[in-house]
Amino acid sequence: MLRKREGDMLTEYAVEPAQVAVALAAKVTFDTGLLSGDTLLIRTEGVKKTVVEYRKGQKTGIYLEGSETALRIPLPPLLMIRTTSEDRNPNYAVYAVKRKPKSLDVTLFQAPLPNVFNSGSICWGTVQRVSGTALSGASLAEDWAMLLGSPFGDHAVSGKSASFPQDIRKKLIELEQKDSRRYPTSDLIPANKTLAQVLGDKS
Question: 14 vs 114, 127, 132, 133, CA distance in Å?
Fold first, then answer.
């Protein structure tokens, strides 16, 4: 019961426990700071939760729309940022980095993938996103699997590669043809922001 006093008058209201929990949670904040594992940061501000995860540079199978065979290509180290708020669909951002971040001031680069906009946000199309209990945890393994396991189309293909500025897919095809072992970091395009700026810590 919620009690409200106005002068000499006392009024009582019935309230749902869930409403009380949300109201109390809105005042609670938690921030791990930069961690040493693949989960780099967990931050909660009331019902809003942000998880930042690092994926080391590695060979990955990438499907381009219209092809039944995956390209086996090296991807640079990547960061995925997932933000959830109550029961809404999660928001994502993906960026490339040259090495594992040692501070939130790490310089970010455009992820060399189609379907990832220059803002870092993902064009999911009809790809199903993680939902339910998977969103309550801190692991983004399922999120990575859904992103990298889905076919990549022709959206957001420009501005991702110094050698193929108009279409990152041409760079990915070249990497497979050359059987490259590592993604050339010199080919990455700066995103002109740091992780701290993306998280809203700095303007």
Answer: 51, 42, 29, 30
Q: What is the pLDDT along the chain (203 residues), one digit of tens a residue?
A: 666 677 777 777 776 776 666 655 556 788 888 888 899 999 988 888 999 999 999 999 999 998 889 999 999 999 999 998 876 778 999 999 999 999 999 999 999 999 999 999 998 776 666 666 667 778 899 999 999 988 899 999 999 999 999 999 999 999 999 999 999 999 999 999 999 999 987 65
Q: How many CB atoms lie within 10 A of CB 29?
A: 10
Tell me, yes or no, if the pTM score tops 0.85. Answer: no
Three-state DSSP string of the chain: CEEEEECCEEEEECCCHHHHHHHHHCCCEEECCCCCCCEEEEEEECCEEEEEEEECCEEEEECECCCCCCEEEEECCEEEEEEEECCCCCEEEEEECCCCCCCCCCEEEECCCCCECCCCCECCCCCCCCCHHHHCCCCCHHHHHHHHHCCECCCCCCCCCCCCCCCHHHHHHHHHHCCCCCCCHHHCCEEEEEHHHHCCCCC
The Cα 80–Cα 136 span in angstroms is 16
Residue 159, Cα to own-chain centre: how many angstroms? Answer: 19
